[in-house]
Structure formats: structure tokens, C-alpha cells
Amino acid sequence: MSEDGFADWVAEFEGERARRARLEEPRWEWGANLPATVCRSLQKFQIGEDGDGRNLIGKADLAGDAHYAAAVRLFIDEELGHARLLARLLETAGVATLTGHWSDRIFMRVRRLLGLRLELMVLMTAELVAVEYYRDLRDGVADPLTREVAARILRDEQRHIPFHSRRLHDSIAELPTALRPLAVAGWRLLLLAAALFVAVDHGPALHSLRASRTGFVLGVLRSSVPVAAGLLGAVGTPGAAAAHRAPA
After folding, report:
1. What dihedral angle (degrees, nearest 10) is formed by the CA atoms of 88, 94, 97, 98?
2. Rounded distance, CA 93 to CA 115, Å?
3. pLDDT of 128 over the 60 cut
4. Which of 20, 62, 125, 169 is most deeply buried (CB count within 10 A of its CB)?
């Protein structure tokens, strides 16, 4: 990324928006044939993707980087796009979306109490969990429409990790040197707790996708290793560069 704040990330998100505008819609006419366990799981993930992001936008505006604030708005647009895709997928499967769920309400209330640094830690947790989930969904379901939707969302979620890593790296660098490893260790404990919760709550769906609870948790933890290294890396080191780079 350039030194000009998050200007490159604005270009990255705008480029993705233009790419999606040229992309045909999934073949909704195919319909989706999914196990009930997977449908119930997707209902909960659909709620998690659906939100206007006003709280995060307000914190991004206060961060003092206009490019970062613009990139956050574009990130939220992508998340809303995921919610739309999942809602259409559920509709084709003959399943209604949920109007709310207790786990999502708790997640949102906790986020609203946090400053930008801690909120980004929560968002990074959600992104890493989502990457593992959508990968399991893409690879474990036979339904072609669901595989396509999962692949589209997975591609975006993988891009979001270096975006949040970039800002979180800069925020952690503002802490005293001795506190930085503690902050990252605390984040990884939060990630472990979130992965365990999802593995239990969505266990029946994972089973239907031929994935295991243990494998899901281990997959999330493995993916966090390079992210944690990047969060602690000094500017210019390979780890930090990985935290700042958007995927090609």
C-alpha cells in the first residue's frame, strides 16, 4: 500500500465494485437444495452480514483519515451485498430470513461499546471465522447455486482481512511496546472463543458440510498465525507488509 493513508484501499474497493457491476447475477433460477441444518445456519450468518454500519462509520470518521473513512463505507457496502446474496439464496431454497437473533444482538451491543481498535479486533475475528465458514460451505455442499454464492462471498471476506489488518496494525503500533504482544494475544483468545462458539452453534450445519467442529476451530486458528505476525511486524517487515496488502 502507498503512504497516502488508505487511498489505495479506496481504489481497491472501487475496483471491486466495478468488477461486480460487470458480473452476472448468480443463476437464481436454478434454486437451492439445501439441508435444513445449513439453512438455519445461513439464516444466522445472513443477519450478521446485514447492517448499516453507522457505528463503525462514526468511529472511522473520527480517526482523521478521509480515505480510511471512505474505504470503510465501501467495505460496509460489500457486507450488505453479502446479506443480499444470502437472502436471495435462502429465498430460492424456500426459507425466510430471520428478523433477529440473540447472538447477533449481543455481538452488536459489544461492538458499540468499544473504541475503534477493539472494534477492529472484533471485526477481524468475524472475518476470519467467516472465511473458514464460507470455505467449508463452498467445498462441502453439492448445490451449485450455493457453491457459487459462497465462493463470491469468500473472495470478498479474504480481501477484508488485510484491510482491517492494515488499520489494526497502525492502531496497535500506537500502544507502548510491552503492551503490543498482550493486545494481540488477547485478540487471539477472543478469536478462539468466537471459533468455539460458532463450531458449537453451527455444528449440525458443519456436519452436513462434511466438516467437523474441531477442524473448523483449528482452521480459524491456523489462519490467524500470519495475521498476528503482521499485526506485530514493524513497518517494512514481511509480516507487516502482508497485513497491509490486498490480495491480487
Report:
1. -170
2. 39
3. yes
4. 169
